[in-house]
Amino acid sequence: MKKSVFLGALTVAGLAAGVAAAGTLDDVKARGKLNCGVTTGLVGFAAPDANGHWEGFDVGVCRAVAAAVLGDKDAVEFVPTTGKTRFTALASGEIDMLARNTTWTFSRDVDLKFDFIGVNYYDGQGFMAPKALGVSSAKELDGATVCIQTGTTTELNLADFFRSNNISYEPVPIETNAEGQQQFLAGACDVYTTDASGLAATRATFENPGDYVVLPEIISKEPLGPLVRHGDNEWGDVVRWSLNALVAAEELGITSANIAELSAGTNNPEINRILGTEGTLGEMLGLDVDWAKRAIMAGGNYGELFEKNIGESTPIGLARGLNAQWTEGGLLYAPPFR
């Protein structure tokens, strides 16, 4: 579930250049609502519940930004996008930011004219197969039919992996994760491939998850994160530092349970700067002093968001792994708030 590749790059870049001249922060404030692009539905990351209320790990990033800018975590219009439509939606200004399991790559950053403002999930592409298929490695998939979302880095990685291992496959193209799940369960393909996190999320919705296995190979690096258009640095800063606030909050021990107490002031200057009791960080962003406090309160710090939506106690069951704090052997590392 990742990105449009090169087709239409000039069109997307041209759209982005035209829209970026406008100030997105002012637009969002004037509109009173954040337009946030998300996936069409991936349980744990972004999906509407029975009442149409969007929930998930990526949704939490949207709500944090809305809370920081507008003071209301619910002031978000969630815009479902596919692998093919997401970049046009962002470039055209239909959405203010994209928070949708999208991989940071050179061409997307440079050629499509987007700014990836950070990584909220370090991932890698994997494969899921029915146990009945009897394979224990992706290298045993010679001749397999593979369900693959079009317009994604997954598509390119798949071709590279099979070519480098001198084996063949037959692609079964799909547009959305829901379609992929349906086709896979119906036996239209032997294997489903996407980010390992997406495989875990998809398998968790199956009636008999134990009948399916995620193969051990991780065949790519997939740094997933929110992105904005090139050319609007002020807006990029707001989204970037809202995400950084969630990461730093976990490292510094700021939680939804103690944030009110810590907001009265502490002996840690960085906590004070984040929560607005010292310094002028909010003013530098064009926001008020409580912007980061509201971002954190929207759904908790990074760790709280992770555990609630996709962690080991959820049906998705993801371990922190690379997404642990740098102090715990992971890759999460927020720059200093100073």
From TrEMBL:
Domain Solute-binding protein family 3/N-terminal intervals: 33-262
Signal sequence extent: 1-22
SUPFAM superfamilies the UniProt entry points to: Periplasmic binding protein-like II
InterPro entries the UniProt entry points to: Bact_solute-bind_prot3, Solute-binding_3/MltF_N
GO terms classed as biological process: amino acid transport
Signal found in the keyword field: yes
Pfam families found in the cross-reference section: SBP_bac_3 (PF00497)
UniProt keyword terms in alphabetical order: Signal, Transport
Entry keyword DNA-binding: no
Superkingdom, natural source: Bacteria
Family classification: Belongs to the bacterial solute-binding protein 3 family.
Protein name in the entry: General L-amino acid-binding periplasmic protein AapJ
Species this protein is from: Thalassovita gelatinovora
The encoding gene: aapJ
